[in-house]
Structure formats: structure tokens, C-alpha cells
Amino acid sequence: MFLHRDSQKRFYGQDYVYFVVTKTSDNYPYFREPIFCELLIEELKICEQLKRFKLYAFSVICDHLNLLVQPGDEYNISKILQSIKKETARDINYIINYHKGHIHKGDIPECRLQGEQYSRHYDQTFIVPKLSIFCHEFIKKYPGQPFPKFQWQKSFYSHVVANDSDFENHFNYTVHNPEKHNLPADWQYSSLHYPELVEVSF
């Protein structure tokens, strides 16, 4: 175990489970838009394969993401969050700018597969399969441009889960967080609606 120097001090070690919250820049409510919620969940699916972590629960709220996650041996929690945030920001901005013609070859999702990851993990499933669909849905819905450039806050909050009781508390907090924020009863963007993405038990 060692202490990482960051804006929040983080403890890294084997078998740690983390409760994590990461927010959008200036708490802008990008995730009121279902297209962006669906894209974020697609990115979670891909990152789970590439970074090989255990995901126990998640919820997407208008201006933040909650995760309950256990890193594997190769990638720590900071590397996992860095990947999720980087890929999500790039792809949401791809969608936002698609109808402006500002798309460049270097912006496509294959970028994440370069170098070591490319040689070890290449698979077409690591490219968001619905990205072009999301783009066209967005254009239809927003003929103008109502969104600023997507950005996450630079850091994130993390809490190391102490024991089974602590795990249960954070699990319940995560899956029921949409209710706390008065989101609709049929809000789909939590792990309660994606059982195939999460681990069954601690």
C-alpha cells in the first residue's frame, strides 16, 4: 500500500473496493440528456474489459457519476477513472461537434487501443458500437448547439470501503442515488437496470 500525491490523498492497495464520485466541470448537467447517459454506460462496458476491474454498482446523475469498484492487479483506481473520463469526454464532444464538421481522424474511439493495449486487447467491441447512432440521434434532437464543450472536474472523490457494512451502505447509496436527486422513477441509468455489468456479490 502507498499514498498517492493528488488533490485528494488516495490509498492504493490490493483488494481495495472504492466508492467513487466524479463530477462534470462546474456541475453542468450534461447527463440530463439520455444520449450522454447511454454513451457513458457504453464507455463503462469497454473500460471494464480494458482495465479489468470489478464493478459492483453505479449510477449516472445529471452532473456526476457514482461508482463502487474494485481494481484488478494491473490498473489502480486513478488509472481507471482517467480512462473512463478521457474516453467519455472525447466521445461526448465528438457527438456535440458532429454536425459542425469538426471531426478529425485522431478523435475516433480507436485511439484508446494504441500501443500496449492495442497489441494485447484489440477487439472491435472496444469501439463504442452505437457512436454513429448517438450522433444522428443528437442531430435530430438538437438542430442547433445547446451544449458547451464537455469537461469533467480534474479530480474525483474516493473512499476506501472498510468492511461489509460499509460496502452495503455505499452500495445502497449508489443504486438509490437517483431517488435522492428527485430523478424520475423510471430513471434507467443505474446498475439496477444493467445487471450484466456488475458483480453479484462482494
From TrEMBL:
GO terms for molecular function: sequence-specific DNA binding; transposase activity. Pfam families: Y1_Tnp. It comes from the Bacteria. One of its GO terms (biological process) is DNA transposition. InterPro entries: RAYT_transposase (IPR052715), Transposase_17 (IPR002686), Transposase_17_sf (IPR036515). Residues 13-177 form the Transposase IS200-like domain. This is Transposase IS200-like domain-containing protein. It comes from Candidatus Kuenenbacteria bacterium GW2011_GWA2_42_15.
